[in-house]
Amino acid sequence: MLTFIIDTSLGILATWAFYRTAIVLLFPETHSEINIPELLRLLVRGLLATPGPSVLPLGQLSYTLLENTRKTGRLRGGYFVLHTAKGLWSDEKGTSCILEIQNNWRKIEGEWYALVKEPFVGFRTTEDGEHVVALIVRHRSDWDAIPSTSDLIPEGFRVVQGWREIGREELKEKGNVLYGQELYWGAFDLYKQALHRPADSVPSDLIQRNCAQAALKLSLRDTAIQDATAAFSANPSDPKNSLKLAECHYAARNYVAAETNLQNLVALDPLNVKGKLLLEKCQQRIAEANGEYDWVKIRRVLKTRPNSHLDVADYTGPVEVKVGKFGRGLYTTKDVKVGDLLLVSKALQFVYLSDGDLENSEKLKNMKLDCILEVAERLHNEKSLQNGFFELWRGKESAEPRNIDDTYALDTEMIRDIYDVNCFTPSYHDINTFLEEPPYGEGLWLLPSFMNHACWANTRRSFLGDVMILRAAADIPSGSELFTPYVSLYTDLLSRQTHLQDRYGFTCTCAYCTIQTEEPLQVRKDRASILESYATLLPSLNPQSQQEALKECILEVENTYTLPPSDFPRLELLNVYWTLALTYHQDQPLEGIAVSMNLLSALGFEFDDDGSTRRVGYMDIHAMPTMSQLCISWAALGKMQRAEKWGENAKAVCEIIMGEGTRFEEIYKGWLEAAPKG
Question: For 402-414, how does the pLDDT look when each residue is reduced to its tens digit (9 = 90+)?
Fold first, then answer.
């Protein structure tokens, strides 16, 4: 007999299992035709799959009381309205229950009402021996906090709370107290109650403005805009209403609408300092939306606050999403040149990690879970994001999303599946890291996630904090698909293809993979053997012998290639070339220049005698320091015109690899000044 035991308490899948179990499967040895790994995978996936969210419109569900629940399992066709005070939940009859909201990112404290749709029903015994109903909610769209003024709350249930017996002024003041205690939902609810009281000395627009401010603190940006719009409509002559509406539009990244409100504000109140400052920020965001970024200022923010979530606007260049050979992808809408800015995209959500966390599997797992739950919360609060998110690839086996009343049912497991195959984890090679320590983290960027994979891609992505910058890494004709690598080209062919097949379900057929696949396996083994033998030999040699050994290594490895570097970049040789160049540049700059030029040729670059670029090669990170070293060496020889030309080349490559060139400009002059003159 063959025995297989799977412990689902291990690994990332356990994050999504709400129970622990062990599965023991027995198969007769004679059943060799059974695909056991595939069968086990399907069985485990079925057991771990979380039952989906409620997919019925609220109008088709029936209001339910706790006393009417008689059996365990999913409550089909019903919903509860519950109230909590001091952590105790009850319905309108005063029947107590336990409410467990799983996968919950937003924490609401204080007294509030909850709408709970089709929860899982169980029964538990409390410490006092009381037998109570336990309701479990697993998906973000299956519950919501509702204000005590909602029509969903039975009339008697509201009266018990006594909100109609308090005047508008007192409700507002109580709301202000809760706001000061950072109990924003309680404050929001009291402000809503105040609006339902007869008008007194407190004008409605003031309370609506307070509602908008509390909603902003709760990240309810759509609600905030509605309340601020109501305040402005009620009293458009009050500058505070114009400012609040502008702040709400700004928070929702509606910069043009915010600018319009602020221009009206400045016309009403020319001395309004807050309005003028926000107007200036709006105009900066609008300029960014046109591709004009102050990279120095952005980098300064990250330097003073390293884990910042940057306040910048998205820029969408000459690109569009359309369906092609590989499904939905990102395509150019006009001819673009190498180095052109294609996208600047702020993450939908991004979680920072410290350097030490990278080796901590528990922290990495929690980071991913936090980011997924934050995505679910944003999708719930900002309905305008849902279409773009659910158009992303959902993975190999994910189900179709369900739409209810023009909004999506937010299935936590589906959100996880979409996130998992579309998230980006910036690496050292991706980040604007020149002489700076890179941040670490993981996040989701909507528009860039439509890009399909190629190991040898025609774009280069980089990151500044939670902002992704995408530039063309080659000249790209109009209508061409844009690609980005899902795995490093430095990884060997088998590892790349295995990763892509396991995680994404496809085999890469890009130019680089095709060449490597067609190349005899023995050639790749011989190449690796040569590199390994010289790596072992070098530490035992003196400097001069090391130079000769490095030259011999380059020659032997070059002889294993049959295609030119323009078709097959010599990535395996880059570190060898770089090491050899460094041994020459200080004392023998002309020799160093020759080796550096060979390194760039190994990437497929071609240059005229004056340093002008004739052909752009593979945009590897080695290209930037190599061109910078050429700049320094020519300056050391007193050839300042050539030094400046190579400085220009280095800056152009820097902009592509790092996303922007201001960091390079800051150190470029210092290099020239520090270079010894020959």
Answer: 888 788 999 988 9
Same domain, 32 and 66: no
Q: Which helix (H) or strand (E) holds 232?
A: helix 221-234
Q: DSSP letter string over 502-556?
A: HHHS----SHHHHHHHHS-HHHHHHHHHHHHHHHHHGGGS-HHHHHHHHHHHHHH
Q: Are 462 and 657 in contact (CB under 8 A)?
A: yes
Rounded Cα gap, residues 36 and 492, in angstroms: 29
Q: For residues 84 and 161, what is the distance between their CA atoms, to the nearest angstrom?
A: 11
- Euclidean distance between CA atoms 432 and 303, whole angstroms: 12
Between strands 120-125 and 131-137, the pairing is antiparallel
What letter represents residue 379's amino acid? Answer: L
Give the domain range for residue 590.
563-674
In a domain, 521, yes or no: no
The closest alpha carbon to 423, from 369, 477, 502, belongs to 369
pLDDT tens across 221-276, in order?
Answer: 999 999 999 999 999 999 999 999 999 999 999 999 999 999 989 988 899 999 99
pLDDT tens, residue by residue, 583-630 = 888 788 899 999 999 999 999 999 998 899 999 999 998 998 899 899
Domain boundary (287, 305, 327) is at 287
CA distance linking residue 41 with residue 48, whole number of Å: 10
Q: Where are the alpha helices (DSSP H) in 269-410?
A: 273-289, 295-304, 361-381, 386-390
Distance CA 340, CA 480 (A): 15
Separation between Cα atoms, residue 45 and residue 42, nearest integer Å: 5
Amino acid identity of 300? R
Tokens of 412: 């936590």
582, part of any domain: yes
Helix 221-234, helix 204-217: angle, nearest 10: 160
Q: For the chain, give me the number of helices (H) and strands (E)?
A: 22, 25
What domain count does the chain have?
4
Asked whether the beta carbons of 72 and 123 are under 8 A apart, the reply is yes
156 and 27 both lie in a single domain: no
Instruction: Supply 188's token pair.
Output: 């929001």
Residue type, 112: W
* Cα distance between residue 235 and residue 226, in whole Å: 14
CATH code of residue 430: 2.170.270.10
